[in-house]
Amino acid sequence: MTTEKVDFTGVQSTMLVTLFLRAADARDAEPVLGDHFAVEAVNRIDYDWKKIDKPGSLRGRFGVALRAKLLDDWTAGFLRRHPDATVLHLACGLDSRAFRLELPAGVRWFDVDLPDVIELRRKLYDEDDRYRMIATSVTDATWLDGVPTDKPALIVAEGLLMYLEEAEVRGLLRRLTDRFRTGELIFDGAAPWMARTTQLLSKYLARWYRYPPFRTAVRDGSDIERWNPSLHYRDDIATMARYEQIPDPKARRTYRLGSRIAWYRNSIRVFRAEF
Ligand SMILES: C[S@@+](CC[C@H](N)C(=O)[O-])C[C@H]1O[C@@H](n2cnc3c(N)ncnc32)[C@H](O)[C@@H]1O
Fold first, then answer.
1. How close is the Cα of 161 to the center of ligand 1, in Å?
2. Distance CA 203, CA 196 (A)
3. Which of 72, 160, 170, 270 to mutate to test the pocket of ligand 1 (most atoms within 8 A of CB)?
4. Residue 2: is its pLDDT beyond 80?
5. What is the mean pLDDT of residues 140-151?
6. Is 236 in the pocket of ligand 1 (CB under 6 A)?
7. HSE on the CB side for 199, CA within 13 Å?
8. Which candidate, 158, 190, 173, places its Cα nearest to that of 265?
9. Fewer CB within 10 Å: N-end or C-end of the chain?
10. pLDDT over threshold 70, residue 1
11. 64 CB under 6 A from ligand 1?
Protein backbone atom coordinates (compact mmCIF):
# COMPACT_ATOMS: atom_id res chain seq x y z
CA MET A 1 0.00 0.00 0.00
CA THR A 2 1.48 3.39 -1.00
CA THR A 3 1.21 6.28 1.43
CA GLU A 4 0.84 9.93 0.47
CA LYS A 5 2.67 12.62 2.39
CA VAL A 6 0.46 15.56 3.26
CA ASP A 7 1.10 18.78 5.11
CA PHE A 8 -1.82 21.05 4.38
CA THR A 9 -2.21 24.34 6.15
CA GLY A 10 -5.05 26.83 5.81
CA VAL A 11 -8.58 25.82 4.92
CA GLN A 12 -7.41 22.60 3.24
CA SER A 13 -6.22 21.30 6.60
CA THR A 14 -9.78 21.32 7.96
CA MET A 15 -10.72 18.34 5.80
CA LEU A 16 -8.03 16.26 7.51
CA VAL A 17 -9.86 16.89 10.78
CA THR A 18 -13.25 15.78 9.48
CA LEU A 19 -11.64 12.79 7.74
CA PHE A 20 -9.85 11.72 10.92
CA LEU A 21 -13.02 12.11 12.99
CA ARG A 22 -15.06 10.04 10.54
CA ALA A 23 -12.34 7.38 10.75
CA ALA A 24 -12.47 7.56 14.56
CA ASP A 25 -16.25 7.08 14.43
CA ALA A 26 -15.81 4.08 12.12
CA ARG A 27 -13.37 2.51 14.59
CA ASP A 28 -15.93 2.74 17.40
CA ALA A 29 -17.54 -0.59 18.28
CA GLU A 30 -20.92 0.96 17.40
CA PRO A 31 -20.33 3.79 14.94
CA VAL A 32 -22.82 6.51 13.99
CA LEU A 33 -21.75 6.65 10.32
CA GLY A 34 -19.28 3.77 9.94
CA ASP A 35 -17.28 5.26 7.06
CA HIS A 36 -14.63 2.59 6.41
CA PHE A 37 -13.30 4.61 3.44
CA ALA A 38 -12.17 7.22 5.95
CA VAL A 39 -10.21 4.59 7.90
CA GLU A 40 -8.49 3.43 4.71
CA ALA A 41 -7.70 7.02 3.66
CA VAL A 42 -6.21 7.88 7.07
CA ASN A 43 -4.04 4.74 6.88
CA ARG A 44 -2.76 5.80 3.47
CA ILE A 45 -1.94 9.40 4.39
CA ASP A 46 1.40 10.22 5.91
CA TYR A 47 0.45 13.13 8.17
CA ASP A 48 1.19 14.01 11.76
CA TRP A 49 -2.20 12.76 12.98
CA LYS A 50 -1.16 13.49 16.59
CA LYS A 51 -2.19 17.08 15.85
CA ILE A 52 -5.81 15.83 15.77
CA ASP A 53 -5.64 12.62 17.77
CA LYS A 54 -6.44 14.25 21.14
CA PRO A 55 -9.34 13.57 23.50
CA GLY A 56 -10.78 17.09 23.02
CA SER A 57 -10.83 16.72 19.23
CA LEU A 58 -12.00 13.11 19.26
CA ARG A 59 -15.14 14.03 21.19
CA GLY A 60 -16.13 15.98 18.06
CA ARG A 61 -16.47 12.75 16.06
CA PHE A 62 -20.11 12.34 17.09
CA GLY A 63 -21.07 15.76 15.71
CA VAL A 64 -19.12 15.19 12.49
CA ALA A 65 -20.67 11.75 12.00
CA LEU A 66 -24.21 12.99 12.76
CA ARG A 67 -23.80 15.82 10.24
CA ALA A 68 -22.47 13.49 7.55
CA LYS A 69 -25.25 10.98 8.23
CA LEU A 70 -27.96 13.63 7.94
CA LEU A 71 -26.51 14.87 4.64
CA ASP A 72 -26.25 11.24 3.45
CA ASP A 73 -29.93 10.70 4.32
CA TRP A 74 -31.03 13.87 2.52
CA THR A 75 -28.84 13.02 -0.49
CA ALA A 76 -30.30 9.50 -0.68
CA GLY A 77 -33.83 10.97 -0.45
CA PHE A 78 -33.17 13.39 -3.32
CA LEU A 79 -31.67 10.63 -5.48
CA ARG A 80 -34.70 8.41 -4.86
CA ARG A 81 -36.92 11.23 -6.16
CA HIS A 82 -34.50 12.13 -9.00
CA PRO A 83 -32.60 9.00 -10.11
CA ASP A 84 -31.20 10.96 -13.08
CA ALA A 85 -29.80 13.81 -10.94
CA THR A 86 -26.49 15.61 -11.26
CA VAL A 87 -24.79 15.90 -7.87
CA LEU A 88 -22.31 18.67 -7.17
CA HIS A 89 -20.53 17.75 -3.96
CA LEU A 90 -18.73 20.99 -3.13
CA ALA A 91 -15.69 21.01 -0.83
CA CYS A 92 -15.66 17.22 -0.86
CA GLY A 93 -12.28 16.96 0.86
CA LEU A 94 -11.63 13.21 1.11
CA ASP A 95 -15.23 12.44 1.93
CA SER A 96 -16.55 9.18 0.46
CA ARG A 97 -20.24 10.10 0.14
CA ALA A 98 -20.24 9.09 -3.55
CA PHE A 99 -19.11 5.59 -2.55
CA ARG A 100 -20.98 5.27 0.76
CA LEU A 101 -24.34 5.73 -0.93
CA GLU A 102 -25.90 3.49 -3.50
CA LEU A 103 -26.24 5.72 -6.53
CA PRO A 104 -29.00 5.06 -9.09
CA ALA A 105 -27.53 4.25 -12.52
CA GLY A 106 -28.63 7.60 -13.99
CA VAL A 107 -26.83 9.76 -11.43
CA ARG A 108 -23.74 11.78 -12.39
CA TRP A 109 -21.61 12.88 -9.46
CA PHE A 110 -18.99 15.64 -9.35
CA ASP A 111 -16.68 16.01 -6.35
CA VAL A 112 -15.24 19.53 -6.20
CA ASP A 113 -12.43 20.94 -4.08
CA LEU A 114 -9.30 23.08 -4.25
CA PRO A 115 -6.54 21.80 -6.61
CA ASP A 116 -4.14 20.43 -3.96
CA VAL A 117 -6.97 18.54 -2.23
CA ILE A 118 -8.13 17.03 -5.54
CA GLU A 119 -4.54 16.11 -6.41
CA LEU A 120 -4.41 14.05 -3.21
CA ARG A 121 -7.93 12.71 -3.73
CA ARG A 122 -6.99 11.42 -7.19
CA LYS A 123 -4.26 9.30 -5.60
CA LEU A 124 -6.80 7.64 -3.30
CA TYR A 125 -9.94 7.31 -5.43
CA ASP A 126 -10.64 6.51 -9.09
CA GLU A 127 -12.88 8.36 -11.51
CA ASP A 128 -15.26 6.69 -13.98
CA ASP A 129 -17.98 7.74 -16.45
CA ARG A 130 -20.40 8.70 -13.72
CA TYR A 131 -18.00 9.98 -11.10
CA ARG A 132 -15.65 12.92 -11.72
CA MET A 133 -13.50 15.24 -9.64
CA ILE A 134 -13.07 18.94 -10.37
CA ALA A 135 -10.04 20.82 -9.07
CA THR A 136 -11.06 24.43 -8.58
CA SER A 137 -12.10 27.03 -6.10
CA VAL A 138 -15.88 27.11 -6.02
CA THR A 139 -15.53 30.90 -6.23
CA ASP A 140 -14.06 30.56 -9.73
CA ALA A 141 -16.68 31.63 -12.26
CA THR A 142 -15.75 29.13 -15.02
CA TRP A 143 -15.68 25.61 -13.53
CA LEU A 144 -19.40 25.08 -14.06
CA ASP A 145 -18.85 25.36 -17.82
CA GLY A 146 -17.76 21.71 -17.83
CA VAL A 147 -20.78 20.41 -15.91
CA PRO A 148 -23.94 19.22 -17.72
CA THR A 149 -26.89 21.23 -16.48
CA ASP A 150 -29.83 19.45 -18.14
CA LYS A 151 -30.86 17.38 -15.09
CA PRO A 152 -32.12 18.26 -11.59
CA ALA A 153 -29.18 19.27 -9.43
CA LEU A 154 -28.35 18.31 -5.90
CA ILE A 155 -25.77 20.68 -4.45
CA VAL A 156 -24.16 19.38 -1.27
CA ALA A 157 -21.83 21.68 0.66
CA GLU A 158 -20.59 20.23 3.94
CA GLY A 159 -18.14 22.37 5.87
CA LEU A 160 -17.82 24.97 3.12
CA LEU A 161 -20.02 28.06 3.24
CA MET A 162 -18.67 29.20 6.61
CA TYR A 163 -15.19 29.54 5.05
CA LEU A 164 -16.41 31.86 2.26
CA GLU A 165 -17.22 35.57 2.43
CA GLU A 166 -20.93 36.26 2.11
CA ALA A 167 -20.34 37.89 -1.32
CA GLU A 168 -18.63 34.67 -2.44
CA VAL A 169 -21.57 32.58 -1.16
CA ARG A 170 -24.02 34.79 -3.05
CA GLY A 171 -21.93 34.64 -6.25
CA LEU A 172 -21.62 30.84 -6.06
CA LEU A 173 -25.33 30.31 -5.41
CA ARG A 174 -26.29 32.72 -8.19
CA ARG A 175 -24.12 30.86 -10.71
CA LEU A 176 -25.68 27.56 -9.62
CA THR A 177 -29.31 28.66 -9.77
CA ASP A 178 -28.67 30.49 -13.07
CA ARG A 179 -27.32 27.29 -14.66
CA PHE A 180 -29.64 24.59 -13.35
CA ARG A 181 -33.38 24.79 -13.96
CA THR A 182 -34.28 23.01 -10.73
CA GLY A 183 -32.67 21.37 -7.76
CA GLU A 184 -31.84 21.39 -4.07
CA LEU A 185 -29.11 22.87 -1.95
CA ILE A 186 -28.19 21.08 1.28
CA PHE A 187 -25.45 22.45 3.50
CA ASP A 188 -24.40 23.00 7.08
CA GLY A 189 -24.41 26.48 8.53
CA ALA A 190 -22.77 27.82 11.67
CA ALA A 191 -24.61 30.11 14.08
CA PRO A 192 -23.37 33.73 14.29
CA TRP A 193 -21.96 33.14 17.81
CA MET A 194 -19.89 30.23 16.47
CA ALA A 195 -18.47 32.43 13.72
CA ARG A 196 -17.60 35.16 16.22
CA THR A 197 -15.95 32.60 18.52
CA THR A 198 -13.72 31.26 15.72
CA GLN A 199 -12.83 34.84 14.75
CA LEU A 200 -11.79 35.64 18.32
CA LEU A 201 -9.86 32.38 18.66
CA SER A 202 -7.92 32.93 15.47
CA LYS A 203 -7.21 36.55 16.40
CA TYR A 204 -6.11 36.06 20.00
CA LEU A 205 -5.16 32.38 20.25
CA ALA A 206 -3.68 31.83 16.79
CA ARG A 207 -0.83 29.70 18.14
CA TRP A 208 -3.34 27.25 19.54
CA TYR A 209 -6.22 27.63 17.08
CA ARG A 210 -4.72 27.04 13.64
CA TYR A 211 -7.83 26.91 11.49
CA PRO A 212 -9.30 29.75 9.45
CA PRO A 213 -12.17 31.59 11.15
CA PHE A 214 -15.74 31.24 9.94
CA ARG A 215 -16.68 34.19 7.76
CA THR A 216 -20.32 33.51 6.91
CA ALA A 217 -22.90 32.46 9.49
CA VAL A 218 -26.56 31.51 9.18
CA ARG A 219 -29.15 32.88 11.62
CA ASP A 220 -32.09 31.06 10.05
CA GLY A 221 -33.57 29.92 6.75
CA SER A 222 -34.45 33.47 5.71
CA ASP A 223 -30.71 34.14 5.26
CA ILE A 224 -30.69 31.66 2.38
CA GLU A 225 -33.50 33.51 0.59
CA ARG A 226 -31.73 36.81 1.28
CA TRP A 227 -28.55 35.42 -0.31
CA ASN A 228 -30.49 34.23 -3.34
CA PRO A 229 -34.23 34.84 -3.87
CA SER A 230 -34.41 31.85 -6.27
CA LEU A 231 -33.77 29.56 -3.29
CA HIS A 232 -36.73 28.57 -1.13
CA TYR A 233 -35.88 27.48 2.39
CA ARG A 234 -37.55 24.17 3.28
CA ASP A 235 -36.03 22.69 6.39
CA ASP A 236 -33.24 22.68 8.91
CA ILE A 237 -32.10 20.25 11.56
CA ALA A 238 -29.53 20.83 14.29
CA THR A 239 -27.03 17.98 14.11
CA MET A 240 -27.08 17.77 17.90
CA ALA A 241 -30.84 17.17 17.85
CA ARG A 242 -30.13 13.77 16.29
CA TYR A 243 -28.41 12.62 19.51
CA GLU A 244 -30.59 9.48 19.63
CA GLN A 245 -28.46 8.07 16.82
CA ILE A 246 -25.37 8.02 19.07
CA PRO A 247 -24.96 4.46 20.43
CA ASP A 248 -22.42 5.49 23.09
CA PRO A 249 -24.56 6.19 26.23
CA LYS A 250 -22.25 8.84 27.73
CA ALA A 251 -21.91 10.80 24.51
CA ARG A 252 -25.65 10.46 23.84
CA ARG A 253 -26.39 11.92 27.30
CA THR A 254 -24.03 14.84 26.70
CA TYR A 255 -25.57 15.59 23.30
CA ARG A 256 -29.09 15.25 24.72
CA LEU A 257 -28.31 17.77 27.43
CA GLY A 258 -26.70 20.12 24.89
CA SER A 259 -29.70 19.86 22.62
CA ARG A 260 -31.93 21.31 25.37
CA ILE A 261 -30.13 24.65 25.18
CA ALA A 262 -31.44 26.30 22.00
CA TRP A 263 -28.45 28.52 21.16
CA TYR A 264 -26.03 25.66 21.77
CA ARG A 265 -28.10 23.09 19.90
CA ASN A 266 -28.22 25.41 16.89
CA SER A 267 -24.45 25.93 16.73
CA ILE A 268 -24.37 23.78 13.58
CA ARG A 269 -27.50 23.11 11.59
CA VAL A 270 -28.04 21.40 8.27
CA PHE A 271 -30.27 23.38 5.90
CA ARG A 272 -32.27 22.40 2.85
CA ALA A 273 -33.51 24.76 0.17
CA GLU A 274 -35.11 24.18 -3.23
CA PHE A 275 -34.98 26.12 -6.47
C1 LIG B 1 -14.18 21.30 6.82
S2 LIG B 1 -13.52 20.68 5.32
C3 LIG B 1 -14.88 19.69 4.78
C4 LIG B 1 -14.47 18.62 3.83
C5 LIG B 1 -15.54 17.56 3.56
N6 LIG B 1 -16.78 18.12 3.14
C7 LIG B 1 -15.74 16.74 4.82
O8 LIG B 1 -16.80 16.84 5.44
O9 LIG B 1 -14.81 16.01 5.17
C10 LIG B 1 -13.58 22.11 4.26
C11 LIG B 1 -13.24 21.83 2.81
O12 LIG B 1 -13.57 23.01 2.05
C13 LIG B 1 -12.64 23.13 1.01
N14 LIG B 1 -12.70 24.50 0.52
C15 LIG B 1 -12.56 25.63 1.24
N16 LIG B 1 -12.66 26.70 0.45
C17 LIG B 1 -12.90 26.22 -0.80
C18 LIG B 1 -13.11 26.83 -2.06
N19 LIG B 1 -13.10 28.16 -2.20
N20 LIG B 1 -13.32 26.05 -3.13
C21 LIG B 1 -13.34 24.70 -3.01
N22 LIG B 1 -13.15 24.06 -1.84
C23 LIG B 1 -12.93 24.82 -0.76
C24 LIG B 1 -11.33 22.79 1.70
O25 LIG B 1 -10.29 22.51 0.79
C26 LIG B 1 -11.75 21.58 2.53
O27 LIG B 1 -11.61 20.38 1.81
1. 9
2. 10
3. 160
4. no
5. 96
6. no
7. 13
8. 190
9. N
10. no
11. no
C-alpha closest to that of 194 among 266, 90, 106 = 266
pLDDT of amino acid 129: 96
pLDDT tens digit sequence for 158-216: 999 999 999 999 999 999 999 999 999 999 999 999 999 999 999 998 887 889 999 99
The atom of ligand 1 lying closest to the CA of 8 is 25
Give residue limits of the domains in the chain. Answer: 67-274
Determine whether 96 is exposed, middle or buried from the number of CB atoms within 10 Å of its CB (0-12, 13-18, 19+).
buried
Atom 12 in ligand 1: residue holding the nearest Cα: 91
pLDDT in tens, 227-264: 999 999 999 999 999 999 999 999 999 999 999 999 99
Whether the predicted pLDDT of 130 surpasses 70: yes
Nearest CA to ligand 1 atom 27: 93
93 lines ligand 1 (CB under 6 A): yes
Cα Rg of the chain (Å, integer): 18
At the second CATH level, the architecture of 67-274 is: 3-Layer(aba) Sandwich (3.40)
**pLDDT, tens digit, for every residue of 14-43?**
999 999 999 999 999 999 999 999 999 999
